[in-house]
Each structure stands twice: as C-alpha cells, then as structure tokens.
C-alpha cells in the first residue's frame, strides 16, 4: 500500500528506488532518457542484463496498455478507479 501511495516515501532500498525512478521516467518521458539514467542503475548494482530486463518490462507494459487503450478495452473490474 505504501508503494502505491508514493514509492518515494515507502522506505524502499536504494536499488529499488533507482529502478522505479528509471521506470517512471521511461514511462512518462521516454524521449528524455539518457545514458546517465542507465548509469544510475549501474551505480546501485544493476548489471547490463538487469537494465535490459527492467527496460523491456517497462516498455512492454507501456506497449500493452497503449494497445488496450487504442482498442477501447475496459479495465478489469477488480481494479479500483482512483
């Protein structure tokens, strides 16, 4: 619940915070991604393979959500509307 409310104040590890910052930026402003974003992940212990995995998962969710939005697919009924 704390992560959903605000991941920045949820008491996560430095590594998880870096991953979520990367994921948020890639989702919200993909054109602004730079090498420093990858370096920030490396600095907290992510390998290049880890970075690729994070990038692929974030990109896949963006892709899947845009397909669903583009086709007008309704949200699952178990998801809250907030």
Summarize the structure.
The protein is built from four helices and no strands. With 82 residues, it is mainly α.
SSE inventory with pairings:
Layout: H1 2-6, H2 14-28, H3 35-43, H4 48-70
Helix pairs in contact: 2-3, 2-4
The computed structural class is mainly alpha
Report on the biggest sheet.
none
Approximate strand percentage? under 5%
DSSP summary, beta strand count? 0
Q: Secondary-structure element order, as H and E?
A: HHHH
| Uncertain residue segments | none
Terminal-residue CA separation: 14 Å
Description:
With 82 residues, the chain is mostly helical. The protein is 63% helix and 0% strand. It has four helices and no strands. The protein has helices spanning 2-6, 14-28, 35-43, 48-70. Helix 2 runs antiparallel to helix 3. The longest helix is centred in the C-terminal third of the chain and has 23 residues, at 48-70. It is globular, with a radius of gyration of 15 Å. The two termini are 14 Å apart. The mean pLDDT is 93.
Main features:
63% helix, 82 residues, mainly alpha, single chain
């Amino acid at each position: 619940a704390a992560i959903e409310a605000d991941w920045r104040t949820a008491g996560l590890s430095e590594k998880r915070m870096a991953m979520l910052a990367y994921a948020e930026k890639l989702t919200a402003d993909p054109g602004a991604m730079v090498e420093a974003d990858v370096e920030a992940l490396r600095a907290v212990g992510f390998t290049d393979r880890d970075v690729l995995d994070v990038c692929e998962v974030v990109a896949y969710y963006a892709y899947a959500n845009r397909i669903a939005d583009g086709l007008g697919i309704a949200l699952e009924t178990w998801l809250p509307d907030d």
